[in-house]
Amino acid sequence: MKNKYIFFYTKENCPLCVEAEELLIMLNKKDIPIIKKNIYSSDELLEKYQLMIPVIQYNQIELFGEQLNIEDIDRLLNG
After folding, report:
1. Distance (Å, rounded) from C-alpha 49 to C-alpha 3?
2. 65 to each of 51, 53, 56, 72, how far by Cα in Å?
3. Is residue 77 part of a domain?
4. What is the pLDDT of residues 65-76, one digit of tens each?
5. Do the beta carbons of residue 54 and residue 6 sit within 8 Å?
6. Where does the chain have alpha helices with state H?
7. pTM check: above 0.70
8. What is the pLDDT of residues 22-54, one digit of tens each?
9. What residues make up the domain containing 21?
10. Could you give the number of structural domains in the chain?
11. Interaxial angle between packed helices 15-27 and 70-78, expressed in degrees from 0 to 180 and rounded to the nearest 10
């Protein structure tokens, strides 16, 4: 079953997060709703993602850090 949302895990003062979010918005051709979560809003998120952000999660697949490039994000979102 496909997700109805894209989860974007981020934090403040993260230039790589800003770049990844811009790519995510640009490549989201199906206008899938994006749920943006600051990893500092939850101890669980912080523990899981603190060394990996930014993270895009869609259909139980996660892309993070250096994997966040045009080709990989486009493949994740648009097949």
Report:
1. 20
2. 9, 6, 9, 12
3. yes
4. 878 999 999 999
5. no
6. 15-27, 43-49, 70-78
7. yes
8. 999 999 999 999 999 999 999 999 999 999 999
9. 17-35+52-65+73-79
10. 1
11. 40
